[in-house]
Amino acid sequence: MSHDEPETSGSNNESKTLSESLESLSAWEKEMDKVEKEADVYRLKLAQPMYAKRRSILKKIPKFWYIILAENDEFAEYASPDDLKYLEYIDDIYVNHPVVEKGVEKTTINPRDFDITISFKKNEMIQEQSVTKSFKVVVNDNGEEHLESSFVEIKWPQELSKINPHLIKERTNEGKSMTPDDKKKYRAGMKSFFSWFAWTGMKPGKEFRNGEDLANLISEDIFVNALKYYIVALSNESGEEDSDEDDSSEGEELDLSDIEVEDKKRALEADVDEGHQAKKLK
């Protein structure tokens, strides 16, 4: 027994050291998290006034946001083809971080909480309006983060009112059962960009799908990299025009390589057919 005591004692010391180290790491992680939040707030305090300055400039550029949204392949996954003609009248997209305005010292606001404002200018297709949707970072019991939001009302285009899920549901709540046609329109409406404004993140399978992904796409990519996307879109348009102008074959030597390959292929097929015929005659 005496031979086992030193080994047991050493094992206990190692376990105690490991436990103390893990506690220290946990404390370090909390301190690091605080530092990272302070860095985020500092960056946002410097950046937000610059985005406010850019905002006033962009409002003077016709169809700036529409050009970006229409050219963005990822955004296309969150909008139906019927939405596009109405997005043409968006004259402002702005992302605001409340922590900058309210101050991180006096509140528990997460620096990653944000608001997205989307405005439609005066036109005949959709009502002039400015809608702000707020998003909050929520931490699950397992430590993972996700976004949640509140329902915010937006005036749908009159032409799309027949597929507006909110209106269809209102009719159902009045005692009318949802017909197969209503269900079809409801599903179509839930795929519209305008349904995203009703997304909360608390009703999986019963609201706009992937609402969190769209919120992050707008706040972290489309809004931040707007100028880059716009320049790329303009260069693409310019490239298409050049390609149309250069599409004249007059005075140019024709490339016959494809035609020659096709001729050889046909000749080979003819030889094969002749061979089959000869075998049949024998």
TrEMBL record:
<feature type="compositionally biased region" description="Low complexity">
    <location>
        <begin position="11"/>
        <end position="21"/>
    </location>
</feature>
<dbReference type="InterPro" id="IPR002164">
    <property type="entry name" value="NAP_family"/>
</dbReference>
<feature type="compositionally biased region" description="Basic and acidic residues">
    <location>
        <begin position="262"/>
        <end position="282"/>
    </location>
</feature>
<feature type="region of interest" description="Disordered">
    <location>
        <begin position="1"/>
        <end position="21"/>
    </location>
</feature>
<protein>
    <submittedName>
        <fullName>Vps75 protein</fullName>
    </submittedName>
</protein>
<dbReference type="Pfam" id="PF00956">
    <property type="entry name" value="NAP"/>
</dbReference>
<comment type="similarity">
    <text>Belongs to the nucleosome assembly protein (NAP) family.</text>
</comment>
<dbReference type="InterPro" id="IPR037231">
    <property type="entry name" value="NAP-like_sf"/>
</dbReference>
<feature type="region of interest" description="Disordered">
    <location>
        <begin position="237"/>
        <end position="282"/>
    </location>
</feature>
<dbReference type="GO" id="GO:0006334">
    <property type="term" value="P:nucleosome assembly"/>
</dbReference>
<dbReference type="GO" id="GO:0005634">
    <property type="term" value="C:nucleus"/>
</dbReference>
<feature type="compositionally biased region" description="Acidic residues">
    <location>
        <begin position="238"/>
        <end position="261"/>
    </location>
</feature>
